[in-house]
Amino acid sequence: MSPDTSMPSSHSDDGPPAVPNAFDIRTTVELSRRGLLDRLGFAGAYATISLLVLPRLEVVGWMSMILVWELVLGPLLERTVIEQPESRGSAIFPVVSLLGSSIYQALALVCLVNGSILGLAIAATWITGSVLNAFIYSSANRWLLMATLLPAVVAMVIGPWLAYGFGWKTVVIPVLIGLSSLASRRFSLDHGALLRQLSGRQTAFVEVERKLSVAIEASGDGLFETDIPAKEFHVSPAWSAMLGYAPGEVKSPMPEWRVFVHPDDVPKVEQDYLAHFRGETPHTASEQRMLCKDGTYKWVLSRSRLVSRTPDGRPWLVVGTTIDISARKALEEQLEAARDAAESANSAKSVFIANMSHEIRTPLNGVIGITGALERTALTSSQREMVGLVQSSGEMLERILSDILDQTKIEAGNFQLQIAPFDLRKEIAATVELMRSNTDEQGLTLDVIYSKKAHGIFLGDAVRLKQIVSNLISNAIKFTSVGGVTVKVKAVDGNTDTQPTLVRIDVADSGIGFDAEVAKRLFGRFVQADGSISRRFGGTGLGLSISKTLTELMGGRITARSQPGAGSVFTLELPLIRSVSIAEGPPPVANEAAQRQEVGESRDRLAKTRILLVEDHPINQRVVQLILEPAGVALITVANGQEAVDIFQPGRFDLILMDMQMPVMDGLAATRAIRAIEKTAGRPATPIAMFTANAMDGDLALAREAGANHHISKPITPGRLLADIDLALSQDPPDQALAASASNSGHP
Question: Which of 85, 199, 271, 738 has its CA 20 to 30 A from that of 102?
């Protein structure tokens, strides 16, 4: 074969490498040296075959020339060419190749001159291979290609002439060898195109690999590959760097990955892999702690996928990435700490509100209870009016306190409405009359107008309705200096008896008003019309927010419309079910006389009832005495839970009114002690009603757990206390009694 071969040149920046586009002497010489043994092998094989047709001396002489050329003369001339300047070397190198190619083609010439069939076959295959070799490796330089092909052309033209003289064989044999060479050229062109295509694909693959490598390096993700049968775990430098290792410090492959995973996380990671191997998940994704070089653990997110299995279906190769999520985990821990702090603060707030509720309700119980007892005495009309105002104001203060508790419940999502029948007109009238003293003081009018159907008994939370209307009227009075406030109540019945009645209450004033922008945010918490409002008129801006929340809880809506300087109109719309239709006549709701009769009947039923009052506050003790003593109740009073336990004997009392917070021993501990005494004696349980200012939802649960049957929330009125005592003596099951007594008290 020809000794002068050419390698493809290295690709340019403009595209993929192509088979020789530029001639490089050093590359060609290097390729020639690497193919030395192949050329000598082919030469030896053809020399051996040629012995069948040629004299031994000619074959040995040709082979000797090949050895001298390849081992001595050729390398010497190549070194000389390489040492020359590039332009001169490019001119000399084709001459050197011409000499070498001539020596190689001497065998083809001798075989053609021999004229035998075997000689022609040897010459044809030798020349064809030489031409193919020349087109593949020497086409980068035209002069090199011509120098390589010229000896072959001379041999296939002169050889037949020397063998046969002038004749048809002299023409046909060169033509056939030439056609075979053309086929070799076609193959070389296809070979070059294939090389260029493969080179382009290789370049594209390398480019994709480079971009992927850059992207992964930029992301900081670590790569890993696990050969499960071989127990080899390969990792990338970025994977090692993520754990604080310098390049080369982590041996790859390593036999085991578990040494880097926190022992507590290993079982979960293994379960993730097993689920993935079973086909339950498209890939694994596990957050785990990895051991760093400094001995600390770092949170990472590891994702991987099984990419191949063994022939028998077992998992083989797993490839994945590891992402550092320690910063995210630290943020999560901060958020959890902040959440815990917020929950702790919220719990502290709830405790504070509960304590505040208890402390305020205790003196408020004295105000409402004593005025209730005073109201039952002989009074003049003006005195009764003043007592009524004091009692109404106390009840309103109680509702304000309940509002604070309501806000806490709303924020916690635990607010519950107390649905019961109520007289719409009576409740609205009571609310308006309560606010009338304020309008009288400011010289304002306060009117209420009812539509024809705006009366009757409805199902709803009357306390919350009065709370909302009171809030709206109070705001109207506060922002009105001239004119007055008008309350319009309208009821629109549904088309059928099952459809609710839409109750609409408009509270209009002639005050300062506000613009449309303020109206959009007026029902937010702590919002006033502007910053000066709070300084001029006072208030926290919380009332409308609570009113809106309560309205929405009742399935209604509240809106406002106004113009600056032209007054405002707040509209409350609630869908309410009529408990008694208008056609059925007067609603079955007790009037004041009936209430007094009911109180009297309760007082008669309680005559000679033995009641133990456990209460530490003197005012509350006196309030209960003023209410129960006229009813003939045999009342015994003690100041703390320990005194109650000491005085208690099974069967001695018909009812125990137990305060919850007391010195020495609280009401819960005293209740548990009394229940233990009864259990030891084998006697039935004495009804115990928690008589307390603790009005939070948790108080009911605590009372139930301690063994109490009922819950009477302070402050109380005479009618409410007598009704609750009747309920406690009815011996209802504890759960029902507690729920009923809480609902009857009208407090949360």
Answer: 85
Lowest average pLDDT, out of 166-175, 268-277, 532-541, 695-704, goes to 532-541
Judge whether 708 and 677 are in contact, CB under 8 Å: no
Instruction: Output Rg (C-alpha) for the chain, integer angstroms.
Output: 53
- Cβ atoms of residues 194 and 18 within 8 Å: no
* Secondary-structure percent of the chain, ordered helix, strand, coil, rounded to 5: 55, 15, 25
Residue 490, class by beta-carbon neighbours within 10 Å (0-12 exposed, 13-18 middle, 19+ buried)? middle
CA dist 602 and 533 (Å) reads 50
Handedness of CA 316, 321, 324, 325 (dihedral sign): negative
The token pair at 555 is 């399935």
Closest CA to 110 of 175, 178, 57: 57
Tokens standing for residue 237: 């430098």
The fold for domain 220-324 equals: Beta-Lactamase (3.30.450)
Class of domain 417-589: alpha beta
What Å distances lie between residue 189 and 151, 186, 743, CA to CA?
Answer: 22, 5, 99
Among positive and negative, which fits the CA dihedral 604, 608, 613, 617? Answer: positive
- What spatial distance separates the first Cα and last Cα of the chain, rounded to whole Å? 107
Task: Domain 593-745: give its CATH superfamily.
Answer: Response regulator (3.40.50.2300)
Angle at 283 between CA 280 and CA 288, to 5 degrees: 110
Pairwise CA distance, residues 78 & 71, whole Å: 11
Percent of residues, the chain, with pLDDT higher than 90: 19
Give the pLDDT confidence of 22-33 residue by residue, as tens digits: 567 777 778 778
Burial class (CB in 10 A: 0-12, 13-18, 19+), 450: middle
What are the boundaries of each domain within the chain?
A: 25-202, 220-324, 334-391, 417-589, 593-745
Q: In what order do the strands lie in the sheet containing 688-692?
A: 634-638, 610-614, 655-658, 688-692, 710-713
CB atoms inside a 10 Å sphere around CB 229:
10
Burial zone of 19 (CB within 10 Å; 0-12 exposed, 13-18 middle, 19+ buried)? buried
Tokens describing residue 228 = 């499960």
| HSE, side-chain direction, 13 A CA sphere, residue 319 | 3
Q: In one letter, which amino acid is 159? A: G
In this prediction, residue 282 has a pLDDT band, given cuts at 50, 70 and 90, of: very high
**Which range has highest mean pLDDT (357-361, 428-432, 437-441, 675-679)?**
675-679
Model confidence band, residue 200 (pLDDT cutoffs 50, 70, 90): confident
Cα distances from 519 to residues 528, 535, 642, in angstroms, run 10, 20, 57
20 has pLDDT over 50? no
What's the mean pLDDT in 330-348?
84
The 10s digit of each residue's pLDDT in 373-424 is 777 778 887 787 777 777 767 766 776 676 666 666 666 666 677 788 888 8
Measured CA to CA in angstroms, residue 528 lies from 531, 546, 568 at distances of 7, 14, 14
Concatenated DSSP letters of 405-459: HHHHHHHHT------EEEEHHHHHHHHHHHHHHHHHHHT-EEEEEE-TT--SEEE
Reported as a pLDDT band with limits 50, 70 and 90, residue 301 is: very high
Could you tell me what percent of the chain has a pLDDT over 70? 80
> What are all long-range contacts of 580-583, with beta carbons under 8 Å and residues at least 24 apart?
580/421, 580/456, 580/457, 581/456, 581/497, 582/453, 582/455, 582/456
Helix (H), strand (E) at residue 184: helix 168-219
What gap in Å lies between CA 470 and CA 707, rounded to an integer?
39
Could you tell me the sign of the dihedral formed by the alpha carbons of 272, 276, 277, 278, in that order?
positive
pLDDT at 190 over 50: yes
User: Measured in whole angstroms, how far is the alpha carbon of residue 113 from the centre of its chain?
Assistant: 89
Kindly report the pTM of this predicted structure: 0.41
